[in-house]
C-alpha cells in the first residue's frame, strides 16, 4: 500500500503545473492501429458469442498449446540483454498552459515540450530512468538470473530524499509484460495473459483477417474479456500463418468499462522477430499509460520503451549464475560511464529527456506553488523532514509525532534518523517521547553498521504491539475498540546481526536483555529476561528459536521457544489474489505472562491486513498455538456481474481467521483449547477508489461474556 500511496503522491506533485484544456496534435505511427479494436472486441448482443466450432478459438488453442515450444526461455540455455527507458511526463499540455498557466513562468519551457507519438498529444517529461539488464536461463538444472548492469535516473525524483524509491515504484507498477506467463503483473494487479491456459474461458476471440506484418503472413485476431469490467486485456494478436503458431505482433489495451482505477488509457505494443537460427523472440516492447487521479488533478503519462537484443542459446557456464557475480555487477550499475550508455542505449533520449537537470532547476526556482506543494509531498512521501541540502539527519516519522493511549493520555514524540549523506557505513535512528498524564519519559536509540545493530529503549506499549505491521505510535491507530487499559512498560538492550546470502536466505542472531512491568489495569511482578535468538528466513518462510538464560545479565527465566511462519500472496488468475499467513509456535518451558504466546490482535477500528479483528488485548493466550489467516481479494469478479452496481467499480473481500491454542501441564487456560477460534470478514473495497470497509463476526466462542461478537473496520486503501 505504501508504494501505491507514494505513486499517487508523485502524481499530485504535478498538480500546480497542469491545466484542464486539451489540444490534440496529429502524428502518424503504427501505434494508431489500435483504433481497430473498437467494435471488434466487445459483443453488443449477449449470448451471440460461441466457443463451440469457433475457428478463432480453435486457432488460439493451438497457439496456447505451442507456446512452450515458442518460448525462447524454455531452451536448454538462453541469454539476452534488455534496455529499458521509463519516462514520467505531464500529459496533454496545451497552448494555454504555455502562455497563461504555471508552466509559462518556467524559463525556457518551450524547450521541454514535445509531441508524444504514442498518444498524439504534447507532453513535458519530468523524470526519465534507464536500465540495462542481462537475463540468463538454464533448463537442466532449472535456473534463472536477471542482473542489472546499468541504471540511472534524472528528474523530479531528485527533489526527494526517497527519489530512488520513487523510481523503483514506477518500475514496479509499470513492469514488463510477458505473454508467456499465465498471470501478468501490471499496476500491481494480476491480468490474465491472452495465451494463458485459462484464456479460452475468460476471453472472446475473433478472426479479423489474414494480413502481412513485414514479410510474414499472419492471422489477425481481436480479443476482449467476456465481461468488459473484469481485470483483463483487450487487444489484437497477429499469429504467424504456419505450423509454428508463433506470435508476430500484439497490441494490448484495457476495455473502457474496466474497473482499473486512475487509468484513462493504456496501450502496449510488442513485436516479435525471427533470429537467423529460426527462433522467434520478443524484440520490441513499448507501453503508454495515461493517468489521472480525478478530473481536477494532474494528468500524466508513463512511457516505457523496451528493447531486447543479444539473444544467444549457447552453453552458459555455471559461474554466470553466481550470486556473487550478480552482486558485483549490480554494485557497479549506478556508476556506469557515458560510453557504457552509448553502447547499450537502443533508443535515444529525446531533446527534453536530455535536459532533465535544467528543467528541475527551472521549476524549483521559478514556481513558489510547486515548491510549496513539492515540499508538502516530500513530507508525505518520506514521512520525515530534511534538515539540510543534502540532509544528513531527517526528523520523523511525522505520523508518530502525536498519539494517545490509556496510560499516557496525550503523547508527543520527536525522533529522526541519519541518511547516506551522513555516512554510507553507519546509521543512527531514535526518538524521545513524553506522556502528559503519566509524566513518563521514553526513548529509543539504534546504531547500525555492516549488518550489526546495537539498540536500547525504554517505553510503554500494548502487549500485542510487536505483532502489528505498523508503528505502535501511529496516530491513525489511536481509535481503539478493545481493552486499551492493559499496557506494560519495558526496558530493552539488544545486539543483533543480520546477513543475507546471495541465494536470498536471511540469517539473523541477537542477544537481548529485557525488563517488563505492568501498567494501567495490567499487573504482574517485574520480569527480567536475557535471551539468545536465531532466525532463518527464505522466500516467505521464517523459522526462529529463542533461548532464555537464567543468570545472564540478571535474567531470571530459563526457557526455549520455537516459532515458524509462512506468508505468501497467491494469484488466483481471474479470481483475484489470496494472502496467506500461517504461524505456529511451541514454548517448551514455563514462561512469564508478558512473554506467553498471544495472537496478532488488532484492537483498533482501523483494519490491518493479516490480523485478528475481534480478539481483545491479551485474549486467547497459550504456550502452544497454530493460526491461519486467509485474506481473499476477489477484484470485483462478482460485483461486475450485477447491472448498475458494476458501474461503481466495487471489489469484494473475504477473510477467514483461525486460531488454535493450548496450555500444557494445566498452566493457564485458553478458550481456544476445546475448539478453534474462528472469525470471518466480508468487505467491500475500492469505494470511491480508496476506501475499504469490512464487517467482522466471531464464528466460535461467541458465548463468552466478554466476547466482542461483531464489528465494522475501515481503512484507506489505494489501488489501480
Structure description:
The protein has a 17-stranded antiparallel beta sheet that branches. 12% of the residues lie in helices and 42% in strands. The chain is mainly beta and 720 residues long. The N and C termini lie close together (11 Å).
Relevant terms:
17-stranded antiparallel β-sheet, 42% strand, 9 helices, eleven-stranded antiparallel β-sheet, mainly beta, 720 residues
Radius of gyration: 28 Å
Query: Beta fraction of the residues?
Result: 35-45%
Report the end-to-end length measured between terminal Cα atoms. 11 Å
* Percent range of helical residues: 10-25%
Report the biggest beta sheet as strand number plus sense, adding barrel if it closes. 17 strands, antiparallel
- Give a count of the beta strands, DSSP E runs of length 2 or more: 30
Structural class assignment: mainly beta
Q: How many distinct helices?
A: 9
Shape: globular
Q: Concise description?
A:
This protein is mainly beta and 720 residues long.
